[in-house]
TrEMBL record:
InterPro entries xrefs: AB_hydrolase_fold (IPR029058), Esterase-like (IPR000801), Ig-like_fold (IPR013783), Ig_E-set (IPR014756), Mycobacterial_A85_antigen (IPR050583)
Source lineage: Bacteria, Pseudomonadati, Bacteroidota, Bacteroidia, Marinilabiliales
Protein name: Endo-1,4-beta-xylanase A
An example molecular function term from Gene Ontology annotations: acyltransferase activity, transferring groups other than amino-acyl groups
Signal sequence extent: 1-21
Source taxon at top rank: Bacteria
Organism: Aquipluma nitroreducens
Keywords: Signal
Length: 374
């Protein structure tokens, strides 16, 4: 009898664990809507209120379709299931982080973009993009406020024997008063991206428009150019030579911008910032060229040490930031050290984000009001 009691106990225990496992599975709310980054008229991909993403790809002859880059926390991506109509569908294993994400589709081993989504340059290729609405997205939303202008410029680059491209944000009202001049922020993208990133993925122009409309910042110009970072392979940062880009930026682009835009063309009114590898570029160039920039900002891009800066009088601001899932303790400690050394230094940590654009959007929002305060 004792033997059967033990067996019954084990059976009920296993049954209880199974019931617990079944009841503990999250319920996915069926309120999916097309992503805001979809191609016109395309229904998929879709996002629900919990942050799950759902995909639907037409590939009737395919044997395997996976939405790659580990969406939803699933290593290896989200596998899709084929239907009788030749469409493959699937939902991420879990909710995704808020904000913007790159992704692509792997079909029978080949890498493709999702035909339903708009494309964004990242990972050294044009990738599909999806946006998970953030609870604080209002600061980069398109609002009925005066808007600035983002224009493409082509500037001569003797050092690279070609013309190079940059994008320039000018604030609302720029040019109305011909005598009015503006400070300038040189803002760099990360590895795998290009000069389109901060406008397209980062919404830098909308962040600026909204802050200006709210009276939280003094208007300034932003210049975004290609950092010449993608010639190195992922993980090869130690082999990156800053000299060619430093020449392009300091000797070619800055003089061109100062000659063609209403800038305050001096060091106190010039800032440099960058995300990730663009932060590494910012760190190196600002230390090499203290006579060019007075405001330094690293967004998930490392830290400054007091002993690195030879002339404290030339530095008006040091700003470092990261996501709470990156290295927040290191960022905070470095700023404490900079403050103790007498620098005007500020840290910012984006809650519940990692190495991603919501971290950097939030960082720009925090940085902008600190720049060019006389």
């Amino acid at each position: 009898m004792k033997k059967y009691s033990i067996i019954l106990f084990l059976f009920l225990s296993i049954l209880g664990l199974q019931c617990f496992a079944q009841t503990s599975q999250p319920t996915i709310t069926d309120d999916f809507k097309p992503s805001t980054l979809n191609q016109p008229g395309k229904e998929y991909p879709q996002v629900n209120s919990q942050g799950y993403a759902r995909f639907k790809i037409e590939a009737p002859q395919a044997q395997s379709v996976v939405v790659s880059l580990g969406l939803g926390g699933a290593k290896g991506g989200t596998p899709l299931t084929k239907g009788d109509d030749g469409f493959w569908t699937g939902t991420t294993a879990g909710p995704m982080d808020e904000g913007f994400h790159y992704y692509h589709v792997t079909i029978d081993g080949g890498v493709f973009n999702d035909p339903g989504a708009c494309n964004y340059y990242g990972s050294v290729r044009w990738e599909s993009g999806i946006e998970i609405p953030a609870h604080d997205q209002d600061f980069y939303a398109l609002k009925d406020v005066p808007h600035g202008n983002v224009q493409q410029i082509l500037f001569p680059s003797p050092s690279t024997k070609t013309s190079r491209r940059a994008f320039v944000y000018t604030p609302p009202g720029y040019g109305a008063d011909k005598s009015k001049r503006y400070p300038v922020l040189y803002l760099q993208h990360g590895w795998g991206e290009d000069e389109t990133a901060w406008s397209n993925q980062g919404h830098a122009n909308l962040i600026m428009d909204n802050l200006i409309a709210e009276g939280k910042i003094k208007p300034f110009i932003i210049v975004m150019t290609y950092g010449m970072t993608n010639e190195i392979k992922w993980g090869g940062i130690r082999s990156f030579d800053i000299t060619p880009f430093q020449t392009v930026l300091c000797d070619e682009l800055i003089p061109y911008v100062d000659a063609h835009f209403n800038t305050i063309a001096d060091q106190p009114h010039r800032a440099m910032a960058g995300l990730s590898m663009g932060g590494m570029e910012t760190h190196t160039i600002t230390l090499n060229k203290p006579e060019v920039f007075s405001h330094y900002a690293l967004l998930s891009g490392g830290i400054y040490k007091p002993e690195e800066i030879k002339d404290k009088s030339k530095v008006k601001l040091i700003f470092t930031s990261c996501g709470s899932r990156e290295n927040p303790d290191g960022v905070k400690k470095s700023i404490e050290d900079m403050k103790a050394a007498g620098f005007n230094a500020v840290s910012y940590v984006s809650e519940n984000t990692a190495h991603e654009f919501l971290t950097w959007r939030r960082s720009l929002k925090e940085l902008a009001p600190l720049l060019f305060k006389d």
